[in-house]
Structure prediction request, 291 residues.
Amino acid sequence: MLLRAAGNRTPPPLLLDSKVTPLSSERSGAAAMIESDGFFGLRTTDRLDRELLIALATRQIGAVHVKGLVAAQDCDDVVDRLEKDRLNAFDLSRYQVPTFNLGPILNHYLPQRRITQTYWDEARHAEDFWEGCEPDVRAQCFRLLAEAWGATARQLHHDGRPLFRGIVRDNSNGAPPHWDDLAIEFPPGFVVPVPIVQLSFVLYLRMPASGGETDIWPRRWVPGDDRFRVGSCWPDLPLGAAPLSVRATAGDAVIFDPRHYHQVRPGLDGRRLTLASYLGITADGALVAWS
Ligand SMILES: O=C(O)CCC(=O)C(=O)O
Prediction:
């Protein structure tokens, strides 16, 4: 792998305030109620803070879009390095569209119901990648999350070993509707501690010229949904109200609760690369992170 020195970067411009955009009437089946109380709205901001994470946790808002969390040039440098590296492929039969990753994700070990050596090998490879990154955008994200929460995110453990966090994903082909829930997908004790709040953090490293939106529905899985299940996705499930849809640009981050159905729209003209980590809040108020 080639190393590139990025030097000092000018911080991204600050936006002056944040705003809430509720689900719009054209996009929602329950327009009046949603318009009036901002149910499951999108908060756009230049600065992440503890209140926003709590608002997501309590479902007062549906997603936070942080503009310019990381300098776009720093994201470009990571992408340049990624182009010289080898990404692994997701299991097509479970995820329906070709998807690639650097760094392991627990979800891939669901069928075996155990973590294999591959997880730790991929984690080592990804740690080496980030150690060679200057600036280390993954470390930068966790530093900003720690500042927002007021304490560093702790790692979750499996069999006494700390889990990896911060997967790079190539979702250029999109991702069909699905959800993620550590508490109900994995056997008890698989990871500790099980957080009582789960969030998904996505930093956009590169975005296609159009498409690539993250869509989030104000709707969680119920057992009857599994009539529509295909692998790990629910491509044809009628999800009712149209989703909250976020079109981010490189350097932006979006945070939402992944227990809600969400999808990635296919990109047109260009790759879509993200750095993602699950975040949680434990019963004793600690911020935790895992992939
Ligand atoms: O990349 C995104 O926009 C969302 C990724 C996703 O599907 C997930 O975090 O589960």
Summary: The mean pLDDT is 88.
